Amino acid sequence: MTDASFDTQTATGEAQFGDYVALLKPRVMSLVVFTAAVGLLAAPGGVHPFIAFFAVLCIAIGGGASGALNMWYDADIDRVMKRTASRPIPSGRVAPQEALAIGLTLSGFSVIMLGLATNWVAAALLAFTIFFYAVIYTMWLKRWTPQNIVIGGAAGAFPPMIGWAAVTGGVSVESVLMFALTFLWTPPHFWALALFMNADYEKAGVPMLTVTHGRKTTRRHILGYTVLLAVFAVAAAFTGIGGPVYLAVALVTNALFLRGAWIIANRDEGDARADKYRTEKRFFAFSLLYLFLHFGAILAEAALRPWGMGGW
Question: In which pathway does it act (predicted)?
Answer without folding.
Answer: Porphyrin-containing compound metabolism; heme O biosynthesis; heme O from protoheme: step 1/1
